[in-house]
Amino acid sequence: MLADSWRVRLAGEVGARSLRELGEDRLSAKKGCRNAVELLARITLASERTLTQRMRLGAAVRPRTALTGDTLPAAFPAASAALRAGALGYDSAAAIIDTLDPIRSRVGDLNLERAETALVAAATGPTVESPLPFSADEVRGQARVWEQVLDPDGTEPVEERAMQARGISAGLTRDGLVHRKMALLPEIDAKFETLLNAYLNPRSKPTFTDADPDAPKDPRATAQARHDVFASLIDGAARSADAPRIGGAAPTVLVSVRQADLDRRCGSGFIEGCDAALSMRAVEQFVCAGGTQTVLIGDDGRLISLSTSDRVFNAQQRRAITLRDGGCIIPGCTIPAAWSEIHHVIAHRDGGKTETCNGVLLCWFHHRTIETSGWQILMIDGVPHVKPPPWLRGGRSDAETPWRRSTKSRTQLADQLEAASAAESRAGSSPTRC
Ligand SMILES: [Zn+2]
Q1: Which of 116, 128, 129, 329 could pair with 406 in a Cys bridge, judged by C-beta atoms 3.0 to 4.6 Å apart?
Q2: 210 CA from centroid of ligand 1 (Å)
Q3: What's the CA-to-centroid distance between 236 and ligand 1, angstroms?
Q4: Ligand 1 centre from 231 Cα, in Å?
Q5: Could you list the pLDDT tens digit for every one of the 434 residues in the chain?
Q6: Spacing, Cα 405 to ligand 1 middle (Å)
Q7: Listed residue (108, 102, 60, 96) closest to 80, CA to CA
């Protein structure tokens, strides 16, 4: 910490000797540099940003000179003394000075001194409140509290600026991804973060999955998992009964694809209003969850015929499936029913019908990856059963791995428990596809 002290004091000294009002006599000019930062950068090789902060700190902890020429104590005397003694680190000093200095003119020297003294005591510890010195982050947090207490209206202008600057930018397509910039107000971000974390936090899983030996470890990076929770959240919001209707229908994303490409399962689709092409797997997910409408266009570009959309599960079917499945049926997944899509277990092209005994709830991620993840789904007597991918079977072969009934519905789980305790076995039932 003594090294921190020397760095700050050196920057303060060079800054004071390079003040513009010193004219040709200023140190930086004598050394052939534009200003103190350039001079310091040449000596220390540190970055401009670091040096600017060091100089700001250095100025705050070095004795000041009055207009009369008298020497006055430093603007932050307690921090200055602790820094010199090597008791206060650079980051903690920065946290105190950078937070308190801007409010000095509004709160007065006396109040500022009170806050500074308390913060330096906490940073150099021990204090009554803490047996250990506060870390720099804790000091910054504490400094923000002091700022709020001393200058309660001070954040208003910041808030006004933030209100003006809030926004979500339009998307820019690059490398198959749409990039957006989000500038969220703190309370909105806090709600967003809480919502994401609620569905990412393993502790939020119902207890029956905790005891589930097949519950998989999530192979996704945290950022990817957050994206997927967001995807499910959007799905849920679009489907919500409260969502505004557009022409009588829930907000619908229109994807176009050529029939021949869809049949061959290659090529790509296009979303109205989006530059990026859509992979065939994404198109198939749209078809599975949202249905299709065949539009026949003649060689001359005329619309010849239009099929009705009949592959979408209607509201009654969704309610029934929701009651049966309770949420994404992949063990360990925490996405609730309202945010899940309905997957046709047997695809329409293979003769699968849009009926409750062929539809199961899957979250966006498990739906998108159902053909590649290795999870298998089978309807046995109209009830969804799953089989985990090979790497989760504990060395057992496909034949040795039993189909497990999968539901997140509490009423269904209660039924299962009751059935188990009554020692009723389903061993006799043989898998039948409905
Ligand atoms: Zn899922």
Answers
A1: 329
A2: 15
A3: 14
A4: 11
A5: 788 888 888 999 999 898 888 888 888 888 888 888 888 888 888 888 899 999 999 999 999 888 788 888 999 999 999 999 989 999 999 999 999 998 898 889 999 999 999 999 999 988 877 788 889 999 999 999 998 888 877 767 777 888 888 899 988 888 888 899 999 988 888 889 888 888 876 544 443 444 455 555 677 888 898 999 999 888 888 777 666 666 666 667 788 888 888 888 888 888 877 777 888 888 888 888 877 777 888 788 888 777 766 678 888 899 999 999 999 999 888 888 888 999 999 988 888 888 999 999 999 999 999 988 889 999 999 899 999 998 888 788 888 889 998 888 887 787 777 887 776 555 555 554 45
A6: 15
A7: 60
Cite the DSSP H helix spans in 215-314: 222-239, 259-264, 280-290
Q: CA dihedral defined by 151, 155, 160, 166, rounded to 10 degrees? A: 180
217 CA distance to ligand 1 centroid (A)?
Answer: 12
332 CA distance to ligand 1 centroid (A)?
8
The residue with tokens 């998992």 is: 225
Q: Is 148 helix (H, G, I), strand (E, B) or coil?
A: helix
Residue type, 49: R
How far apart are alpha carbons 359 and 370 in whole angstroms?
Answer: 14
- Token representation of residue 189: 């971000």
